[in-house]
Design goal:
The complex is a heterodimer of chains A (148) and B (192).
Chain A (H helix, E strand, L loop, with lengths): L2 H19 L9 H19 L5 H24 L1 H8 L3 E5 L2 E2 L1 H6 L4 H10 L8 E6 L5 E5 L4
Antiparallel strand pairs in A: 1-2, 1-3, 3-4
Helix pairs in contact in A: 1-2, 1-3, 3-4
Chain B lengths: L15 E2 L3 E2 L4 H27 L9 E5 L5 E6 L1 E3 L4 E7 L8 E7 H4 L4 E5 L4 E5 L2 E7 L6 E6 L5 E9 L17 E9 L1
Parallel strand pairs in B: 5-13
Antiparallel strand pairs in B: 1-2, 3-4, 4-6, 6-11, 7-10, 7-12, 8-11, 9-10, 12-13
The chains are: A alpha+beta (148), B alpha+beta (192).
């Protein structure tokens, strides 16, 4: 199979895997997610490189991935539906002192994850939070309650 | 003079939660995505189970076996191979395959080309091309054992191969009369 097709398949497969396997990158990334990302990336390389370790193969595959990434970003800008599929949508986890259980369960998050984000903003307990939202980049934003 | 930067007024277009926090949450999409995720996870489990079973090669479902009615050849091979991945095809010979202390085996070209034969153990005494394949001659005792072909498919696809043992010692292409040999045919799927 041509190097560019292997690269394209590897890129599409990785995008799907990372999207489906969970949206907890960046600050929310735990050692488990590090293992997932590096392991999947390493395994994908085996079939992308195959037995062709040439400079040409590396160039073609890097350019293919760059083109695909550029195309995906361009398409995402053209279509809100595609943007939601690729990036997901921000989700409210805690709404005016009430947990959204379905969202927490669906996103495989726990109250501990929200509290970890709250501590980073200097909050001492969950009841100081008015809204907690899971952003598209996987970070949890905290809006603290207005002081009485 | 520099062209002025185009500007547009800010619209409050991001949907709000509690009429105060602009989040842009789309729960109806998210619920559909969760359904999609469940389907994908189910498919992932199915793929792993099928892989363990050998449906994609290198497992119990991939192992195959065939033999000639007269017992001259008993072949164990993998009906599902993987591209560029080594495998072994074993041919066990019966006494009826031996003529004058030799076994003459014919294999189709596809064994060498598409299925990528790398080596034969033991090494044949001679190899002659002809009839769309290769004739190998192996010296043996009256109790013949087996020959192994180390395969490594060179491309993905569906390929057929054929094997037969020559029931006499006539040199191929000489026109000498010989009984019809028992031929085995099989199909191999090479996964990408």
């Amino acid at each position: 199979m041509a190097a560019c097709f292997r690269a394209a398949f590897g890129y599409a497969f990785l995008v799907l895997m990372v999207r489906v396997a969970g949206r907890r990158p960046g600050k929310q990334m735990t050692p488990f997610e590090f293992v997932l990302i590096f392991f999947i990336g390493g395994l994908t390389l085996t079939f992308m490189v195959a037995d062709d370790r040439s400079l040409v193969n590396a160039f073609v595959q890097i350019i293919t991935v760059a083109l695909l990434h550029y195309s995906l970003v361009w398409l995402r800008r053209q279509s809100n539906n595609l943007a939601r599929i690729i990036d997901g949508t921000p989700l409210v986890l805690l709404d005016n002192g009430e947990w959204r259980k379905d969202t927490l369960m669906g996103m495989r998050l726990q109250d501990d994850d929200v509290m970890a984000a709250a501590r980073e903003q200097g909050l001492r307990s969950l009841d100081e939070i008015q809204y907690a939202t899971l952003e598209r980049n996987g970070e949890i934003s905290i809006i603290r309650k207005a002081q009485a | 003079m520099a062209t002025p930067m185009r500007t547009v007024p800010v619209e409050d277009s991001v949907p709000k939660v509690g009429n105060e926090l602009a989040v842009g949450e789309d729960l109806s999409f998210q619920r559909k995505w969760w359904v999609f995720e469940r389907i994908v996870w189910t498919l992932f489990v199915l793929v792993v189970v099928l892989d363990v079973a050998g449906v994609f090669g290198r497992g119990p479902a991939a192992n195959a076996h065939m033999h000639t009615p007269d017992g001259a050849m008993n072949v164990r091979y993998e009906r599902i191979e993987r591209f560029s991945t080594p495998s072994i095809m074993t041919i066990e010979f019966g006494r009826t395959a031996v003529r004058d202390g030799k076994i003459q085996l014919w294999v189709s070209d596809s064994i060498v080309k598409e299925l990528g034969n790398q080596r034969i153990v033991p090494q044949p005494l001679s190899s002659i091309t002809g009839d769309g394949g290769i004739y190998y001659t192996f010296p043996t005792t009256d109790s013949p054992d087996s020959v192994e072909f180390a395969l490594q498919p060179s491309k993905p696809g569906v390929f057929h191969f054929s094997l037969r043992v020559q029931p006499n010692t006539a040199t191929p292409g000489t026109g000498a009369a010989s009984p019809a040999p028992e031929q085995l045919q099989a199909r191999v799927v090479v996964m990408p």
